[in-house]
Hints:
Layout: E1 2-4, H1 11-26, E2 31-34, H2 41-57, H3 71-92, E3 99-104, H4 113-124, E4 133-139, H5 152-157
Parallel strand pairs: 1-4, 2-3, 3-4
Helix pairs in contact: 2-3, 3-4
Amino acid sequence: MYLCGHPGTGKTSSLNHVLSMMRADVKSEPLLFNAMTYPDVKSFTLVLYEQLHQQFFGEPAKRKLKRTDDDEDIAYAIERLLVRITQTQKKTGKVMPHRVIVIDEVDCFSHYEKPLTLLVKHILKPTTGPTRTCIIGIANSVDLPFRKKHSGIAMRDT
């Protein structure tokens, strides 16, 4: 989901209200990130991997991802972790609701199109199994999806 609008229009406040209702109803805790706190997408994905592992398994990951790892390998490692979490939940009979990853100020990552696209692709359309995960991006840039000339949306609108 992509929430966009000019600063001060209530995007984050509205989402926080929905997330608070979700926490109460389905007892799920979303992971909240602000893209402005990360210098690039790779830094974000390394933290995302650690927090996903910590949130579900209650301990740091034994296999550490490194900045020197390829973007595709990091995105694939996150996909495998999400699939492993889903499979573990099924085995224990404790099927949790979908995981929610919220990235506020996601337009800060607009200069890192390839690694962000890889990450989203591996989370939303995994090749190794279902991840039961959704991503919500919040941005001030109303036109972010239309900026790339090769984008299917931009081509259709042209």
